[in-house]
Design goal:
Strand content: 25-35%
Order of helices and strands: HEHEHEEHEHHEHHE
Distance between the termini: 40 Å
Radius of gyration: 19 Å
CATH topology: Rossmann fold
Shape: globular
Helix content: 25-40%
Number of strands: 7
Length: about 240
């Protein structure tokens, strides 16, 4: 929710779009913010996870301006180009980024915009450090991108980044267990950047929770986790 809210000021100067595509709608947090910000626009929201689509459909039942579709951002195309594509905390899951942004460029009108946020390398560094200490032989399969990789992928796809910024955010949780539950609810515990080929055993998971609680206590009780976020706006490069 916090990242989606911080993404909204990047849309403040946009002309009112009539159509919007959202990539990775999840439970509909950004969908709601965008629907409120642009009350006359139709929104086509996609997600690759069927359960997320069903959850969002229930949340927006009766709202005819918002439609949901189970689809892959690497291959999805709207019925015609749109003036605005939005996405919050999703694009880092999709690989390769060059193919992703190339397809997004195809979704946009010539003067359209993509406004997005995504997680960068260094996100959940505490959890990864705890994992290495208790299960050194089970490293995660892949790493999150850094900002240079994302900005280069945009450029290679024919997108000009007109605005970007990074920030590190620390969020407190009541316990290490609550952190893992929160990540599970967000769909963060699956995929190559958060899991290895072999799952942790029950004993390793117990050790990880104890290590995390001891190593990363929050100032006012509980534990903290760090998220590194890139916020960016890009537009298609003008054809000569």
């Amino acid at each position: 929710m916090a990242v989606a809210l911080k993404l909204m000021p990047h849309m403040a100067t946009l002309h009112r779009p009539d159509r919007i595509v959202e990539i990775g709608c999840g439970t509909g947090v950004l969908t709601q913010l965008v629907a409120d910000r642009f009350p006359d626009a139709s929104i086509e929201a996609i997600d690759i996870a069927k359960d997320m689509i069903e959850s969002s459909k229930r949340r927006f039942a009766g709202n005819r301006r918002v439609t949901f579709q189970e689809a892959d951002a690497l291959t999805f195309n709207p019925r015609s180009p749109v003036p605005l594509v939005v996405s919050s905390s999703t694009l880092h899951w999709i690989s390769p980024p060059e193919s992703l942004f190339r397809n997004i460029a195809r979704m946009l009108t010539g003067d359209g915009r993509i406004v997005f946020s995504l997680m960068l390398q260094g996100t959940l560094i505490e959890l990864h450090e705890s994992r290495r200490r208790v299960a050194r032989g089970k490293p995660v399969l892949a790493a999150l991108p850094n900002s240079d990789q994302i900005l280069k992928a945009c450029n290679d796809a024919g997108l000009i980044v007109t605005d970007s910024r990074e920030e590190a955010v620390q969020i407190d949780y009541p316990s290490a267990t609550d952190l893992l539950y929160a990540l599970h609810d967000l769909g963060v515990t699956g995929g190559s950047i958060s899991s290895s080929g072999t799952p942790l055993t029950r004993m390793e998971l117990t050790k990880l929770l104890a290590d995390y609680a001891e190593s990363y206590p929050a100032e006012n009780a509980g534990v903290y986790a760090t998220y590194r976020v890139l916020y960016a706006v890009a537009t298609p490069r003008k054809k000569v």
